[in-house]
Input
Amino acid sequence: NAGVTQTPKFRVLKTGQSMTLLCAQDMNHEYMYWYRQDPGMGLRLIHYSVGEGTTAKGEVPDGYNVSRLKKQNFLLGLESAAPSQTSVYFCATFTGRNEKLFFGSGTQLSVL
Amino acid sequence: GIQVEQSPPDLILQEGANSTLRCNFSDSVNNLQWFHQNPWGQLINLFYIPSGTKQNGRLSATTVATERYSLLYISSSQTTDSGVYFCAVRNTGFQKLVFGTGTRLLVSP
Output
Protein backbone atom coordinates (compact mmCIF):
# COMPACT_ATOMS: atom_id res chain seq x y z
CA ASN A 1 0.00 0.00 0.00
CA ALA A 2 1.99 2.97 -1.31
CA GLY A 3 -0.51 5.74 -0.46
CA VAL A 4 0.27 8.79 -2.60
CA THR A 5 3.18 8.52 -5.04
CA GLN A 6 4.59 11.45 -7.00
CA THR A 7 6.91 11.12 -9.96
CA PRO A 8 9.47 12.42 -10.66
CA LYS A 9 11.01 13.53 -7.36
CA PHE A 10 13.39 16.03 -8.96
CA ARG A 11 13.49 17.72 -12.34
CA VAL A 12 15.43 20.52 -13.98
CA LEU A 13 13.90 22.20 -17.02
CA LYS A 14 14.97 24.95 -19.37
CA THR A 15 12.64 27.87 -19.93
CA GLY A 16 10.03 26.95 -22.53
CA GLN A 17 10.24 23.18 -22.06
CA SER A 18 7.19 21.17 -21.11
CA MET A 19 6.71 18.38 -18.61
CA THR A 20 4.08 16.38 -16.76
CA LEU A 21 4.04 15.49 -13.08
CA LEU A 22 2.19 12.34 -12.09
CA CYS A 23 0.32 11.75 -8.84
CA ALA A 24 -0.90 8.21 -8.24
CA GLN A 25 -2.97 7.07 -5.25
CA ASP A 26 -4.14 3.66 -4.17
CA MET A 27 -6.56 4.78 -1.44
CA ASN A 28 -9.59 5.13 -3.73
CA HIS A 29 -9.97 8.78 -2.74
CA GLU A 30 -12.30 10.99 -4.78
CA TYR A 31 -10.56 14.32 -4.24
CA MET A 32 -7.04 15.09 -5.47
CA TYR A 33 -5.13 18.37 -5.25
CA TRP A 34 -1.97 19.93 -6.62
CA TYR A 35 -0.23 22.51 -4.42
CA ARG A 36 2.98 24.45 -4.90
CA GLN A 37 5.25 25.59 -2.09
CA ASP A 38 7.81 28.31 -2.62
CA PRO A 39 10.76 28.75 -0.21
CA GLY A 40 9.61 29.91 3.22
CA MET A 41 5.99 29.99 2.11
CA GLY A 42 2.82 28.07 2.70
CA LEU A 43 1.00 25.85 0.23
CA ARG A 44 -0.97 27.38 -2.60
CA LEU A 45 -3.59 25.40 -4.49
CA ILE A 46 -2.99 25.12 -8.24
CA HIS A 47 -5.80 22.83 -9.44
CA TYR A 48 -7.95 20.15 -7.92
CA SER A 49 -10.34 17.37 -8.86
CA VAL A 50 -13.38 16.05 -7.03
CA GLY A 51 -13.67 12.87 -9.09
CA GLU A 52 -12.67 11.07 -12.26
CA GLY A 53 -13.09 13.31 -15.28
CA THR A 54 -13.42 16.53 -13.27
CA THR A 55 -10.96 19.37 -12.70
CA ALA A 56 -11.20 22.86 -11.24
CA LYS A 57 -8.94 25.86 -10.75
CA GLY A 58 -7.36 26.76 -7.47
CA GLU A 59 -5.62 29.97 -6.36
CA VAL A 60 -2.71 29.93 -8.84
CA PRO A 61 -3.75 28.00 -11.98
CA ASP A 62 -2.06 30.09 -14.67
CA GLY A 63 0.60 28.24 -16.66
CA TYR A 64 -0.61 24.80 -15.56
CA ASN A 65 -3.07 22.25 -16.89
CA VAL A 66 -4.40 19.08 -15.27
CA SER A 67 -6.20 15.91 -16.19
CA ARG A 68 -7.95 13.18 -14.20
CA LEU A 69 -8.73 10.49 -16.76
CA LYS A 70 -8.52 7.72 -14.16
CA LYS A 71 -9.62 7.99 -10.54
CA GLN A 72 -6.22 6.96 -9.22
CA ASN A 73 -4.13 9.40 -11.27
CA PHE A 74 -3.95 13.20 -11.35
CA LEU A 75 -1.54 14.77 -13.84
CA LEU A 76 -0.13 18.28 -13.67
CA GLY A 77 1.28 19.71 -16.88
CA LEU A 78 3.50 22.67 -17.58
CA GLU A 79 3.18 23.58 -21.26
CA SER A 80 5.97 26.17 -21.41
CA ALA A 81 7.98 26.30 -18.19
CA ALA A 82 9.04 29.65 -16.73
CA PRO A 83 11.55 30.40 -13.94
CA SER A 84 8.60 31.58 -11.78
CA GLN A 85 7.43 27.96 -11.73
CA THR A 86 10.51 26.85 -9.82
CA SER A 87 8.96 25.37 -6.71
CA VAL A 88 8.19 22.21 -4.80
CA TYR A 89 4.98 20.58 -5.97
CA PHE A 90 2.85 18.47 -3.68
CA CYS A 91 -0.04 16.24 -4.52
CA ALA A 92 -2.64 15.42 -1.89
CA THR A 93 -5.69 13.20 -1.72
CA PHE A 94 -8.83 13.27 0.35
CA THR A 95 -11.98 11.21 0.61
CA GLY A 96 -14.15 14.31 0.29
CA ARG A 97 -15.84 13.56 3.58
CA ASN A 98 -14.60 15.07 6.79
CA GLU A 99 -11.40 13.13 7.10
CA LYS A 100 -7.65 13.59 6.73
CA LEU A 101 -5.69 14.89 3.76
CA PHE A 102 -2.74 12.74 2.68
CA PHE A 103 0.31 14.14 0.89
CA GLY A 104 2.82 12.72 -1.52
CA SER A 105 6.53 13.32 -0.91
CA GLY A 106 6.81 16.22 -3.35
CA THR A 107 8.53 17.06 -6.63
CA GLN A 108 11.31 19.63 -6.63
CA LEU A 109 11.25 21.48 -9.95
CA SER A 110 13.85 23.99 -11.10
CA VAL A 111 13.33 26.02 -14.26
CA LEU A 112 16.49 27.67 -15.56
CA GLY B 1 -12.64 33.09 0.45
CA ILE B 2 -11.86 31.94 3.95
CA GLN B 3 -8.78 33.47 5.57
CA VAL B 4 -6.44 31.43 7.78
CA GLU B 5 -3.88 33.11 10.04
CA GLN B 6 -1.30 31.34 12.14
CA SER B 7 0.73 32.70 15.02
CA PRO B 8 3.45 33.11 15.92
CA PRO B 9 5.22 33.00 12.54
CA ASP B 10 8.47 31.87 14.17
CA LEU B 11 9.23 30.19 17.47
CA ILE B 12 12.53 29.18 19.03
CA LEU B 13 12.52 26.85 22.02
CA GLN B 14 14.97 24.99 24.17
CA GLU B 15 14.49 21.28 24.35
CA GLY B 16 12.00 20.38 27.07
CA ALA B 17 9.95 23.58 26.80
CA ASN B 18 6.23 23.71 26.05
CA SER B 19 4.57 25.77 23.32
CA THR B 20 1.19 26.75 21.93
CA LEU B 21 0.55 27.45 18.25
CA ARG B 22 -2.59 29.21 17.15
CA CYS B 23 -4.73 29.05 14.00
CA ASN B 24 -7.50 31.64 13.44
CA PHE B 25 -10.00 31.32 10.61
CA SER B 26 -12.54 33.75 9.26
CA ASP B 27 -15.60 31.58 8.56
CA SER B 28 -17.35 28.42 9.68
CA VAL B 29 -15.50 25.21 8.87
CA ASN B 30 -16.36 21.53 8.71
CA ASN B 31 -12.78 20.33 8.44
CA LEU B 32 -9.63 21.47 10.24
CA GLN B 33 -6.31 19.66 10.18
CA TRP B 34 -2.83 20.25 11.59
CA PHE B 35 0.29 19.23 9.69
CA HIS B 36 3.98 19.08 10.48
CA GLN B 37 6.47 19.65 7.67
CA ASN B 38 9.79 18.20 8.76
CA PRO B 39 13.17 19.64 7.70
CA TRP B 40 13.23 17.20 4.76
CA GLY B 41 9.99 18.66 3.41
CA GLN B 42 7.68 15.77 4.23
CA LEU B 43 4.15 16.76 5.29
CA ILE B 44 2.69 14.66 8.07
CA ASN B 45 -0.92 14.87 9.19
CA LEU B 46 -1.01 15.37 12.96
CA PHE B 47 -4.69 15.86 13.70
CA TYR B 48 -8.06 16.01 12.05
CA ILE B 49 -9.94 18.21 14.52
CA PRO B 50 -12.91 20.30 13.32
CA SER B 51 -14.03 20.66 16.95
CA GLY B 52 -13.13 19.45 20.41
CA THR B 53 -9.82 18.20 21.80
CA LYS B 54 -7.51 15.36 20.80
CA GLN B 55 -4.22 14.15 22.18
CA ASN B 56 -1.45 12.10 20.64
CA GLY B 57 1.54 11.62 22.91
CA ARG B 58 3.19 14.97 23.61
CA LEU B 59 0.93 16.75 21.12
CA SER B 60 -2.61 17.84 21.65
CA ALA B 61 -5.01 20.07 19.76
CA THR B 62 -8.17 21.96 20.60
CA THR B 63 -10.58 23.59 18.18
CA VAL B 64 -13.28 26.02 19.31
CA ALA B 65 -15.29 26.23 16.12
CA THR B 66 -17.79 28.78 17.44
CA GLU B 67 -14.92 31.20 18.16
CA ARG B 68 -13.05 30.29 14.97
CA TYR B 69 -9.69 29.19 16.31
CA SER B 70 -7.62 26.11 16.95
CA LEU B 71 -4.61 25.56 19.19
CA LEU B 72 -1.81 23.04 18.89
CA TYR B 73 0.08 22.26 22.10
CA ILE B 74 3.54 20.75 22.10
CA SER B 75 4.81 19.62 25.49
CA SER B 76 8.37 18.68 26.44
CA SER B 77 9.60 19.66 22.98
CA GLN B 78 12.33 17.66 21.27
CA THR B 79 14.69 18.60 18.45
CA THR B 80 12.69 16.31 16.17
CA ASP B 81 9.69 18.64 16.62
CA SER B 82 11.51 21.28 14.54
CA GLY B 83 9.94 22.20 11.24
CA VAL B 84 6.90 24.09 10.06
CA TYR B 85 3.41 23.56 11.44
CA PHE B 86 0.45 24.29 9.17
CA CYS B 87 -3.24 24.32 9.83
CA ALA B 88 -5.68 23.79 6.97
CA VAL B 89 -9.42 24.39 6.95
CA ARG B 90 -12.38 23.74 4.70
CA ASN B 91 -15.41 26.01 4.54
CA THR B 92 -18.75 24.33 4.99
CA GLY B 93 -20.07 23.64 1.48
CA PHE B 94 -16.72 24.13 -0.27
CA GLN B 95 -14.38 21.59 -1.82
CA LYS B 96 -11.00 23.13 -1.10
CA LEU B 97 -8.73 22.94 1.92
CA VAL B 98 -7.04 26.29 2.54
CA PHE B 99 -3.70 26.42 4.32
CA GLY B 100 -2.38 28.97 6.76
CA THR B 101 1.09 30.45 6.29
CA GLY B 102 2.58 28.24 9.00
CA THR B 103 4.58 28.52 12.22
CA ARG B 104 8.27 27.75 11.88
CA LEU B 105 9.53 26.00 15.03
CA LEU B 106 13.17 25.48 15.94
CA VAL B 107 13.95 23.39 19.01
CA SER B 108 17.54 23.65 20.12
CA PRO B 109 19.31 21.07 22.33
Summary: The interface with chain B takes residues 31, 33, 35, 41-45, 48, 50, 56, 58, 88, 90, 92, 94, 96, 98-103, 105-106 of chain A (CB under 8 Å). The mean pLDDT of chain A is 93. Residues 47 and 58 of chain A are 5 Å apart (CA to CA). The two ends of chain A are 36 Å apart (CA to CA).
